Amino acid sequence: MSRAEIMTQLRRLVQRLRWLSVLQLVPDTLVIYGILQLGFSQGVVSLFNVGFTRQKAGLVVILFILIDLCVTGIRYNDRMAGHRLIGQLKGHLDESESALIKQFEKFK
Predict the structure, then answer these.
(1) Distance CA 107, CA 27 (A)
(2) Does a structural domain hold residue 97?
């Protein structure tokens, strides 16, 4: 893979990681919301104005957690792919390449 292809792939990866960081807020919020509703409700748990038994609400929260773990796993795989791409770069990096790598490093 040429240096230009590596940089293009890394640019796409940085954009995808930005998007996934924003997307991660949704399942994180759902998990917190579900746990709080489950913890503070008696008998019938109301999630988004829909009544659930405690058991079914617990299952919904578990599904929220699984979605959160999936997004986290996607982000982890993208970070590993980025590290492999950076490892393929050889020689001296110019300013734009260094800046792109620094942007990538922000996503931990």
Answers:
(1) 18
(2) no
| Residue 108 lies inside a defined structural domain of this protein | no
Residue 8, in any domain of the structure: yes
Q: How far is CA 71 from CA 20, 22, 77, 81, 87, in A?
A: 7, 11, 10, 15, 24
Domain count within the chain = 1
pLDDT category of residue 108 using cuts at 50, 70 and 90? confident
Phi-psi region of 23 (alpha: psi -120 to 50; beta: other; left: phi over 0): alpha
- What is the rounded distance in angstroms from the CA atom of residue 61 to the CA atom of residue 28? 11
pLDDT, one tens digit per residue, over 4-51 is 898 999 999 999 999 999 999 999 999 999 999 999 988 899 889 899
Which residue range is the domain that position 82 belongs to? 3-89
- Closest by CA to 17, choosing from 86, 88, 77, 64, is 77
**DSSP H or E run through 53:** strand 50-53
Whether 101 is covered by a domain: the verdict is no
